[in-house]
Design a protein that fits this description.
- By secondary structure, the chain is of the alpha/beta class.
- The protein has a single domain, classed as Aldolase class I (TIM Barrel).
- The strands form three sheets. The chain has a five-stranded parallel β-sheet. A three-stranded parallel β-sheet has the order 6-7-8.
- It is globular, with a radius of gyration of 22 Å.
- The protein starts with 6 loop residues before the first strand and ends with a helix.
């Protein structure tokens, strides 16, 4: 990877463009192995899943991860309202301080009031984001693929846009391609595809579209061989990024010869003399 080709979020620089979740793994040991194979530098943790009073004890999600190697991205998963998301965001920031990341003000903002499809609440997300930005948070909001909402979130000071590829945990891949392309084309901040990616080819495709990063959890944790899948996702994200930077060839309606046709008459003349 080029030294200049870094993922930059609010002046924080990352080499890896793969963000990994910490839920649904078979064991804590399995999660550790997957994080290592993914070569990710940022992992997201649901604040609601943790008891901050017991994080100093052994054998829990927080103590299982070496926070000198990974940047914590606390998330507000489980928040159904703006108020719940804000409360969880402050708990998440406190968690970052407790693990030694004193300058970490990152928060992955999720406001989901829909229990069936788990689509993010655009109104609640916008309200919470505006409040948290004013409180000094680096807000990474999980959103629908709505270009106008994305622009509003950028305008109020969010540090990324995180549109869903498809519903959370569905493994359906990238669904609303046109809207995601519009968001990418018009955003001046990083666009991270979050939710729905089920395979390495889908992760590569997201990167080929021009996404700055992807966030993947279920596709790794629930794979038959999750350690191998973590490695595959890592390679796919790198390949997709390089493909995007290289620039795809122009597509043609009809076949185009890959061999030169100049001189074909000469070859025909030569062979006809025998």
């Amino acid at each position: 990877m080029s030294k200049k080709d870094k993922l930059v979020i609010a002046n924080k620089v990352f080499d890896s463009r793969l963000i990994v979740g910490t839920g649904k793994y078979k064991t804590l040991k399995n999660m550790e192995e997957c994080l290592k194979n993914s070569e990710s530098e940022m992992v997201t943790v649901a604040v609601r899943r943790l008891d901050l009073a017991t994080i100093s004890k052994n054998e829990n999600l927080i103590t299982a991860i070496d926070w000198k190697k990974f940047w914590l991205l606390p998330n507000t998963a489980g928040a159904k309202t703006t108020e719940e998301a804000i409360r969880l965001a402050f708990l998440g920031r406190e968690l970052s301080k407790r693990i030694g990341q004193k300058e970490n003000n990152f928060i992955k903002l999720e406001v989901i009031s829909d229990p069936k499809y788990l689509f993010p609440d655009p109104i609640g997300t916008l309200k919470a984001a505006e409040f948290l930005v004013k409180k000094g948070f680096i807000v990474l909001p999980y959103t629908n693929t709505d270009p106008m909402l994305a622009k509003h979130l950028e305008d109020i000071g969010c540090s990324t846009i995180m549109p869903l590829g498809s519903p959370i945990g569905s493994g359906q891949g990238i669904q609303n391609i046109n809207n995601i392309q519009i968001i990418i084309e018009n955003s001046k901040i990083p666009v991270i595809i979050d939710a729905g990616i089920g395979s390495p080819s889908e992760a590569a495709f997201a990167m080929e579209l021009g996404a700055d990063a992807v966030l993947i959890n279920t596709a790794i944790a629930q794979a038959k061989d999750s350690k191998r899948m973590a490695k595959a996702m890592n390679l796919a994200v790198q390949a997709g990024r390089q493909a995007y930077l290289a620039g795809k060839m122009i597509s043609y309606q009809f076949a185009q010869s890959s061999s030169p046709i100049e001189g074909s008459d000469f070859l025909t003349l030569q062979t006809s003399t025998y």
